Amino acid sequence: MSRSVIVVGGGASGLAAAIAAAELGAFVTLLEQLPRVGKKILLTGNGRCNLGNQDTNDSHFHGTLPQSKQILAGFDAAQYFRRFGLLTRTDAEGRIYPMSGTAASVLDALRFAAAQKGVRTLCEKQVTAIMPKGNKWQVTAGDSVFTADALILASGGSAAPNCGTDGNLLPLLKKMGYTINTPRPALCPVLTEPQTVRALKGLRVRAEASAVLGDRILKTESGEVQFTEQALSGICIFNLSRLAAMHGDKMQIALNLLPSFSDAETESLLHELLHQRGDLPAGDLLTGLFPKRIGEMLLRQAGGSCNIPASEISDDTQKKLLSLLHDLRFPVKGTASFSQAQVTAGGIAGQCVSKTLESKLHRGIWFCGELLDLDGDCGGYNLTWCWASGQTAGSNAAKS
Ligand SMILES: Cc1cc2nc3c(=O)[nH]c(=O)nc-3n(C[C@H](O)[C@H](O)[C@H](O)COP(=O)(O)OP(=O)(O)OC[C@H]3O[C@@H](n4cnc5c(N)ncnc54)[C@H](O)[C@@H]3O)c2cc1C
After folding, report:
1. Strand 251-256 relative to strand 328-331: parallel, antiparallel, unpaired?
2. Could you give the CA distance from residue 275 to residue 269 in angstroms, rounded to a whole number?
3. Does the beta carbon of 140 sit less than 6 angstroms from any atom of ligand 1?
4. On the chain, which terminus has fewer CB atoms closer than 10 Å, C or N?
5. How far is the CA of 53 from the centre of ligand 1 (A)?
6. Sign of the CA dihedral 112, 114, 120, 121?
7. What is the distance between the alpha carbons of residues 35 and 130, in angstroms, rounded to a whole number?
8. What is the pLDDT of residue 400?
9. Radius of gyration of the chain (CA)
10. What confidence tens digit (pLDDT) does each residue in 325-350 have?
11. 350 alpha carbon – ligand 1 mean position (Å)
């Protein structure tokens, strides 16, 4: 008789787990609390779904799950989807997208594969209880009770709660004895003092952004930084946000607005501009480099005035301006909430699961996806983890 497997959560990792278990002949029931599966997949990559990355080395993943190294080694997201008839294309930065250019086709590929392999998908089934029943597992969802040889938990993290992911199973799992590393928003805007960014609201600038703790640089990312009413945003800031969540107001974000210029080159550039634009208002000095409001803000922070002729900018202000161009600091005031986050840092601690992602506390329970304490950088890494961990949990639950 084939093994029975229940998967809780019909997101990226739950669908991958269900397919993998069914491929090995298991009788799989997928329980999803929302009216349909894969809601979050449709939102990924701005509706285009960045489903993987050519470079999946360790440095892009964070958390407490050393097991992930082996699970991710050799996993190829493009090949994974090719098996289900979905072709991909890779952009210049190594990010993998569906060839169709739409996330809907990724969800379709998974839904079709699950149906073809006989997965029974039941929606509007929120699991609220998990109990052992002999050597099987029993889950309760509303009036329904389901029993199976193996249980795969794929209920996601707490990010984007409008997609059904609000960490609702965590209290139950904590009661069952699991260590849960505090879930925090990640891949989200970083909050700062509103008065430092308000004047820049709506502007974008290319920069090198560093997470700075005391005199240590924890991480540096390059790309476009966006300014909002009270936060810094953009992909490079997203990639620093898990550090901001961890260190809070002990951390600062430092922007290097001219990363390709050495100190000496920046100094000579400033002299060149002062020479070319000396008769213009000081507020217009840097408009050939940045949006005007950024130049004005730099000048004010350097102690200068925007209305005097640029040629009258004092030596002291010039010196401060030079330093700000390479090291413009923003105090960290936390991160945006889970509703603005793409992923969750934290979750079920790595020490609770084996190499195959089976629970070390309860035989017959597996975990996968964002529910575990592993999060990736922006660039397709989080979905890569979902497909790879779902496949590992699914195939082992079916075989075990
Ligand atoms: C706006 C946005 C854009 C993103 N873009 C990208 C991208 O381009 N590339 C990338 O790699 N990553 C991206 N991510 C991150 C990625 O989408 C997630 O890491 C991934 O979807 C997590 O998959 P999961 O299976 O762990 O959980 P989820 O996809 O969150 O699925 C969990 C499922 O479980 C269900 N569930 C929860 N509790 C229960 C319960 N008690 N009973 C039954 N069902 C339950 C939920 O309704 C949900 O359907 C993005 C995230 C967001 C929010």
Report:
1. antiparallel
2. 10
3. no
4. N
5. 18
6. negative
7. 21
8. 77
9. 25
10. 999 999 999 999 999 999 999 999 99
11. 19
Residues 44 and 168 in one domain: yes
pTM of the shown model:
0.94
Based on the fold, state whether residues 215 and 268 are members of the same structural domain. Answer: yes
Whole-number Å distance, alpha carbon 344 to ligand 1 midpoint, is 10
Q: Is 381 in the pocket of ligand 1 (CB under 6 A)?
A: yes
Shared domain check, 234 and 175: no
In short, whether 169's Cβ falls inside 6 Å of ligand 1 is: yes
Other residues' Cβ atoms within 10 Å of the Cβ of residue 174: 12
**Rounded distance, CA 25 to CA 224, Å?**
47
User: In whole angstroms, what is the distance from residue 34 CA to residue 26 CA?
Assistant: 24
Q: Which domain holds residue 255?
A: 189-336
| Claim to verify: residue 228 and residue 365 sit in the same structural domain | no
pLDDT of residue 192: 97
CA distances from 380 to 41, 91, 383 (A): 12, 12, 6
Query: Which pLDDT score is estimated for 2?
Result: 85
Return the closest-CA partner of residue 137 out of 160, 129, 259.
129
156 Cα to the center of ligand 1, angstroms: 6
179 and 195 together in one domain: no
Ligand 1: residue of 155, 168, 173, 187 to mutate (most ligand atoms within 8 A of CB) is: 155
10 Å Cβ neighbour count for 175? Answer: 9
Q: What is the dihedral of CA 397, 40, 87, 93, to 10 degrees?
A: -110
Stretches in the chain below the pLDDT threshold 70? none
Specify whether 293 is located in the same domain as 384. no
**pLDDT of amino acid 74:** 84
* 127 in contact with ligand 1, CB cutoff 6 A: yes
